[in-house]
Amino acid sequence: MSENLDPVSPKPKREPDEDSLRLAEALVFASAEPVTPHGLARVLAVDLDAGSVLAALRARYAGRGVELVDAGNGVMFRSAPDLAPRLRKVIESPRRLPRVAMETLSIVAYHQPVTRPEIEHIRGTALSQQTLDSLLELDLIAPKGRRESPGRPTLWGTTPAFLAHFGLKDIRELPRREDLLLGMAPPRLIPEILPADLQAPPDAV
Amino acid sequence: MSENLDPVSPKPKREPDEDSLRLAEALVFASAEPVTPHGLARVLAVDLDAGSVLAALRARYAGRGVELVDAGNGVMFRSAPDLAPRLRKVIESPRRLPRVAMETLSIVAYHQPVTRPEIEHIRGTALSQQTLDSLLELDLIAPKGRRESPGRPTLWGTTPAFLAHFGLKDIRELPRREDLLLGMAPPRLIPEILPADLQAPPDAV
Amino acid sequence: MTSMDWMEASSDISLPPSETLVLHLDGFDGPLDLLLDLARAQKVDMARISILSLVDQFLAVIEGARRIRLELAADWLVMAAWLTWLKSRLLVPNAAGDDLEDGEMAAEALATRLRELNVIRTVAAWLAARPVLGQDVFARGVPESHHEYDRSRVIIEAGPFVRAYLEAIRRGTKSSPYTPRALTLWTVQDALRRLADMAGSLPDWTTLEQFLPDHMDSPTERRAALASTLLASLEMARGGTIHLRQDEAFGPILVRQGSAYADRTA
Lengths: 205, 205, 266
Fold this sequence. Notes:
The complex is a heterotrimer, with 2 copies of chain A and 1 copy of chain C. In chain A, 39% of the residues lie in helices and 15% in strands. Chain A is an alpha+beta fold. Chain A has 2 domains: 18-86, Arc Repressor Mutant, subunit A; 99-204, Winged helix-like DNA-binding domain superfamily/Winged helix DNA-binding domain (Arc Repressor Mutant, subunit A), CATH 1.10.10.10. In chain A, the strands form 2 sheets. Chain A has a 3-stranded antiparallel sheet. The model of chain A is unreliable at 185-205 (pLDDT under 50). Chain C is built from 10 helices and 5 strands. The A-B interface holds A 21-27, 29-31, 39, 42-43, 64-66, 77, 79-80, 83, 86-87, 89 and B 21-27, 29-30, 42-43, 64-66, 77, 79-80, 83, 86-87, 89-91.
């Protein structure tokens, strides 16, 4: 780099040799930061120009699987962009459903076919459109016609994809409600609260 | 890799071409961990042998500033060792391991799985928490279960990072005890002093 | 035991004059470490370590150290004491054959431990001489990741699924807005209305209890109704619609149609 030199009497620089290329290659490879010509000059012999060495290195790597690219005011190695799609490794990291979605899904599974107001009724709180949408998008629930009552609300039920998630052959393979609700005081209130059709056991599906 | 193929009718493999070399180069360059032939085979065309591609790549980088070396059961790029003095000037490197840590590491490597009291017995002095911590922090040793004896002490062993750290392909590349003990009387087993497992050869790993 | 000066202590150092060695005692990682260095300094095959001369050297070092610093670490003194015992057994074995064997076995055990430590130290040196990653050879400074995380799938486990259902049901039945507990307590307003309705048909003094509503099942409901009815009766008595009478403390409260009622209906 010219900075190192007395600007009044710039000595003529040598052509980059193999040794300087090796050193530059190793430095750029191992550095966590882009290597600037100035940084390279610190390890090069004084009669070598860092800029020329980097240019020669860039030429050597042209068209290879790894290329020397500019980054900030330095250079770094980067795998060739055209190879990226072939190097890509997709790692599956499945999410867990949020609690609201899980509860909604379980209510649909046990009470299907069920309307949205009925789901809200059972959970005792409003059901957000977002939750319903996410379950729809994941193909875990699907509309199953409409109830022939005022307003003709949509009925919801689970999908084959839902069964596949659990590795179930049939919705009847879910634990029985009666077994689940064991120990819970048989809710005396339920008859008044739940419409009669919600009382159907899950195997009525 | 041959694992991918029907063992009965192994198709003849193509010679590594420029495209496969580029791909292998990019993959190994990008990876923070050693790349196994199996890992490379995943991205290569089926009619190419990962081992041959890596061999060709190794030849291409021979003598360069960056070299392809074995580490564990894979390969990785590393700066050439002869450049170390010049690179150290600009690349920050962690402090060398103190002798205590090196000896402790050697004991773990030779006697693994080994408990802390056994390490202390061999060195004839207590093992400081600091030494254990530094080896753990560098991921050179790791717990390998517990010994089913009173107190159930933790067993220690070396990690894949240990192999990469010292450029070893396999723990068996460590000098054989027999070679080290050359000229010495074969150590008589003294059960009262050394637990029998301390006598296990290193290749019992 | 410092780790800083291991460089000096590690390799085959020739035995320094004892004064220097005293000062260097801290450079050794315990008595075994010093013993090994003394053994190596014998410059003989490790297989033929002379335990006796080793013992003498060790004791000399410890003696020298004690002359300068009295507070020598316990493990050094324990080793010194043990070596003194060992020396006595090796030099003047007792008539009993046991003692001789004891001494020889102990010496062999010590030699074995020293050989083992020597092996380890050689391995450590061998390892340290290799190009070490991060010190002599360097890996890629900025690894790239071509990993792509696919989070489109969801995971549903039977356990959480079933628990979610139970929680929904429990919470739903607990705080559902559709389950208001019917308020069956008899209010003062209720009592006023009932008293006003019934006061006209009162033939004569009637106990207050007669004005309580029917079907008061629980004692709580009954007490609440009684209190409300009492309050209502006091209010009506103040307006003169009814008269109240109580013959004795805690006795039954009697009600009769008042003059105001009669006036109004007249």
